[in-house]
Design goal:
206 residues; mainly alpha
Length: 206
């Protein structure tokens, strides 16, 4: 359910990126106008175009706010659950590595522990991968806004662009119990930490 929610939110963010990028193009097409912003330097003399562009910008802004709100709701619901699962995975990975180090590489126990270790790494990788995808998609939206055809737009439209871009200066991310963002860097830290605990355990045993 958690991963499915993140996939859905990422899809909405991809749609929104194209929405911001093509506001003027879509409005011109809807009004059957053919204007090049490099030649037509001011849209303010075409009231219908100005009104439609402002309306589309408002729709995209509300969509963005809705996405951010849903990400925050999902994070509130799942961040403690993800924290418990990550801690459990670290503990079980250390146990698996320790048991694998005590048996022959060609034994059935080693094979079983390897499969279980693969399942554990897959689980935590899915969480971190899709959490990272949300962060990356959010960071790409300001560039999509900037790449839109806005040179001839009105001052109000440009102000709305800047407000949305400034809002996205803060990364959009999910968290592991509000302690750390759910990203690929966190995944690497989990794997490194698990191996470090395993190495300490082996040193104590020796």
């Amino acid at each position: 359910m958690y991963v499915a929610c993140l996939i859905c939110l990422k899809s909405h963010m991809n749609i929104l990126k194209k929405g911001f990028e093509t506001i003027r193009i879509r409005c011109l097409r809807e009004l059957n106008l053919k204007l090049d912003s490099r030649e037509h330097l001011n849209d303010s003399d075409i009231k219908e175009l100005v009104d439609m562009m402002n309306f589309e910008m408002k729709k995209c802004t509300l969509h963005l706010q809705s996405i951010i709100k849903n990400i925050q709701i999902i994070d509130e619901i799942y961040n403690k659950i993800i924290l418990l699962q990550v801690l459990a995975v670290v503990f079980m990975m250390v146990c698996c590595l320790y048991m694998m180090s005590t048996v022959s590489m060609f034994s059935t126990t080693f094979a079983a522990q390897s499969i279980y270790l693969f399942a554990l790494t897959t689980q935590v990788t899915l969480y971190c991968w899709f959490g990272n995808e949300i962060t990356v998609a959010g960071s790409e939206i300001p560039m999509s806004i900037y790449q839109g055809d806005w040179l001839s737009a009105t001052t109000g439209f440009k102000r709305s662009m800047m407000i949305n871009m400034l809002r996205l200066n803060r990364d959009i991310h999910l968290t592991v119990g509000k302690f750390t963002p759910l990203t690929i860097a966190t995944l690497v830290s989990i794997f490194r930490g698990s191996y470090s605990y395993f190495a300490v355990l082996k040193n104590v045993e020796n």
